[in-house]
């Protein structure tokens, strides 16, 4: 069975939820999650400069991160994650809004994030998340906003009073108001 690419708006200006091309048979499947030509036909001018991945145990929360000038294609290779996109572009019609999606290795779905949209996820089980980035990593251009910032009010699926496993860096991220110089 062959399933073609599909692109659906992800609820934030310029962000897309993507079902990649998938070829399945009795042995399993082959998945093509990126084609420059197909993306351009869908109106997305994305050309990856580098790719990397993270592995996280259940309960790890990474984010919300961004790098100025960088767009991304994100997918869960194995496991399951609660993936969050947050629009941090002050001039955007969807500024300050967030959207969440459950991604899993089995679905193969991807998320395309334009420049200025932050990304984070909560590992719902041991998971591997792959990132293809439109520019190379530059620590001088990276930033983020707190996962629990009341200005964004992201609804993370934490059980009871459970706290996520965070890096020291993520604990120290500013809130949306601080990041944007006092603007809400």
Automatic annotation (TrEMBL):
Q: What does the record give as the active site?
A: 65, 131
Site, Participates in a stacking interaction with the thymidine ring of dTDP-4-oxo-6-deoxyglucose: residue positions: 137
| One GO BP | dTDP-rhamnose biosynthetic process
Matches recorded under Gene3D superfamilies: Jelly Rolls
Q: Name one GO molecular function term.
A: dTDP-4-dehydrorhamnose 3,5-epimerase activity
Q: Name one GO cellular component term.
A: cytosol
Pfam family name, one: dTDP_sugar_isom
Q: What is this protein called?
A: dTDP-4-keto-6-deoxy-D-glucose epimerase
Natural source organism: Anaerotruncus massiliensis
């Amino acid at each position: 069975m062959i399933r073609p690419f599909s692109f659906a708006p992800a609820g934030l200006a310029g962000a897309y939820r993507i079902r990649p091309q998938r070829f399945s048979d009795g042995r399993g499947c082959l998945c093509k999650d990126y084609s420059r030509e197909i993306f351009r036909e869908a109106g997305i001018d994305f050309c990856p400069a580098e790719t990397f991945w993270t592995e996280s145990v259940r309960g790890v929360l990474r984010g919300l991160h961004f790098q100025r000038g960088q767009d991304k294609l994100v997918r869960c290779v194995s496991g399951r994650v609660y993936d969050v996109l947050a629009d941090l572009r002050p001039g955007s019609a969807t500024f300050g809004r967030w959207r969440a999606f459950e991604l899993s290795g089995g679905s193969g779905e991807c998320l395309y994030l334009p420049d200025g949209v932050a990304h984070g996820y909560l590992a719902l089980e041991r998971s591997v998340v792959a990132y293809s980035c439109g520019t190379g990593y530059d620590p001088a251009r990276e930033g983020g906003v707190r996962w629990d910032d009341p200005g964004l009010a992201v609804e993370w699926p934490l059980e009871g009073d459970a706290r996520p496993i965070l890096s020291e860096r993520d604990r120290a991220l500013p809130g949306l108001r601080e990041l944007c110089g006092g603007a809400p």
